[in-house]
Amino acid sequence: MKKILVTGAEGQLGNTFKEKVESSKDQWVFCGRKEFDITDSKVMATFLKDKQFDYCINCAAYTNVVKAELEVDQAYAINVEAVKKLVHLCNQNQITLIHISTDYVFNGNKKTPYLESDVTAPLNQYGKSKLFGEQEIQQNSRAFYIVRTSWLYSKTLGKNFYNSILSKAKKGESLYVVDDQIGTPTNVDHLAAFIMRLISKKPPKGLYHFSDEKIMSWFDLAIKILKEHQLDNTVNPIATSESGVVRPHYSPIFSKKKF
Q: Considering 55, 62, 114, 126, which one is annotated as catalytic?
């Protein structure tokens, strides 16, 4: 039996794990910021003392891409400095760290899906903070998995693109969706299952990409959502605003690492 800690458990990935592990033989412990604040070394050290966790799945992150441009210090405090503290404590307690990262570490200039071996070059503060967090782990962690995923959504949990489009469509609202950003939308259920398989199979430690590998735009995804629910609302394609945050226009992620 393995003992697994999940941080940031209030989010859609953490809540998905809660649903999936009900019949698990392993011991899962779920913590929000109140119980396990990754920015506070003393709180974390006290919590981890004598617990003997085997794995820590770090779902805690600053994820607001727009606000990160203005709240740079806050984004870096959570995505970089807190990760540094977590790495140190995981090393001390012989815990394997599983950290969630993003396709936003790439600039989108590639014409084919990004692999683990591709060069990173983030365009915005969110992407930069996530990349620096990755680098802290790669340079200093004794045992880790970094799992990059993309365009994560849940059909049932939290606020995300899927639920937003569905809610607006059911209310009869007009739908305007960008069609010039291309990625690989990923169901959070599938990501959680991948991480659970990673724990079970124990492949070589390191960096992994995981997505549902169906390449599409946000516009395409909106059309797909409406078809799933047999809705016939009109979806209007629009271009990404030039005045907004710079985002990669093409960031599908695939993996050649199979296990």
A: 126
State the virtual CA torsion across 8, 146, 155, 157 in degrees, nearest 10: 0
* C-alpha distance across the termini of the chain, in Å: 21
Q: What angle do CA 174, 220, 110 make, to 5 degrees?
A: 130
- pTM score: 0.94
CB 59 within 8 A of CB 188: no
Q: Which residues in the chain belong to E strands, given as ranges?
A: 3-7, 27-30, 55-58, 96-102, 144-149, 152-153, 175-178, 182-183, 186-187, 206-209, 216-217, 235-238
Q: For 149-184, what is each residue's pLDDT tens digit? A: 999 999 988 788 999 999 999 998 889 999 999 999
The structural domains of the chain, ordered by start, are: 3-154+184-209 (3.40.50.720), 161-180+215-238 (no CATH)
8 Å CB contact between 7 and 56: yes
208 flagged as catalytic: no
Of 80, 84, 182, 75, nearest to 126 (Cα)? 75
Q: 174: which 2 tokens?
A: 């007009």
